[in-house]
Design goal:
Number of helices: 9
CATH superfamily of the largest domain: Regulatory factor, effector binding domain
Structural class: alpha+beta
Radius of gyration: 29 Å
Distance between the termini: 81 Å
Shape: elongated
Strand content: 15-25%
Number of strands: 11
CATH class of the largest domain: Alpha Beta
Number of domains: 2
Order of helices and strands: HEHHEEHHHEEHEHEEEHEE
Helix content: 40-55%
Length: 273
């Protein structure tokens, strides 16, 4: 081992081992964050095996978002206590990043499931389905007196920290029973997003288990009222009673299809009878 530990690496050799450019090592040397173990009379830099761990720590901390200046301050004043404090802070940040990536993963899985489902659907079919209860986080009550207020509310909802960086893939809209009965089927009441951890949210709504009339609208929102007319006629013909909200969820959108005419929206209306 003594032969290995005493070996010197040129800048090029060290850079190749670690998959970085020589200029990175030159820069680190210039700012004093990571300097060669020795220089020869010609100014050539040489590094040793003992420097591997320090370079690895610099690389990891840099990947975790620490600036080179912050890393240098730590290395210049490093102590066992300082390492413990630094790494405990970084563990917290890593856990946050893991949580964020898990949420992104779940959003992607949801989009995959919705898209697969949409490709198998007969969008002309209206049916009655039983659903289990589901917890939703709601926006503030919507003011749809003008389009700007509506879209401002959507952006604010998407920026809500409790959604965990949700995307449009997981945002739905709700229409109240009163608006449905008044045939104001594009007068939305809330935005919503399903959640998996109900202990974190401040404004929860329980989507009830029970019977729902389910239909699908293919095309742009400008024509969605026609699909609601079909659904309301179906409810009347089946002698059902609307007892709750209608829920809209976009299954196919601009990410998966070209053109508004190919959009597909699922509509679920809570009924009994």
């Amino acid at each position: 081992m003594s032969g290995i530990s005493s070996k010197y690496f040129t800048t090029g050799e060290f850079a190749k081992l670690w998959g970085v450019k020589k200029q990175t090592l030159f820069h680190y040397d210039d700012i004093g964050i990571f300097q060669p173990a020795k220089r020869d009379s010609n100014g050539y830099r040489y590094y040793t095996y003992q420097q591997f761990e320090v370079f690895a720590v610099i690389s990891v901390l840099k990947e975790m978002g620490m600036s080179l200046n912050e890393i240098k301050i730590y290395l210049d004043n490093r102590t066992p206590e300082g390492l413990i404090e630094l790494f405990e802070d970084q563990v917290i940040k890593v856990n946050r990043e893991i949580d964020y990536l898990k949420r992104i993963q779940q959003v992607m899985k949801t989009k995959i499931e919705l898209t697969k489902k949409a490709t198998l659907i007969d969008h002309t079919k209206i049916e009655i389905k039983e659903y289990q209860e589901d917890y939703l986080i709601l926006s503030n009550k919507l003011d749809i007196s003008d389009d700007l207020k509506f879209f401002n509310a959507l952006v604010e909802f998407l920026k809500d920290d409790e959604l965990g960086h949700a995307t449009l893939y997981s945002i739905g809209t709700m229409i109240s029973k009163e608006n449905l009965l008044n045939q104001e089927c594009t007068k939305y009441t809330y935005f919503y997003s399903p959640i998996t951890n109900k202990t974190q949210a401040r404004m929860l709504f329980l989507k009830p288990r029970g019977k729902y009339v389910v239909g699908y609208h293919k095309g742009s929102y400008e024509q969605i009222y026609k699909t609601y007319e079909l659904l309301l006629n179906f409810i009347e013909e089946k002698q059902l009673k609307i007892i709750g909200y209608a829920y809209e969820e976009l299954l196919l959108d601009e990410i998966s299809v070209k053109g508004y005419e190919n959009y597909m929206t699922q509509i679920m209306i809570h009924v009994e009878g």
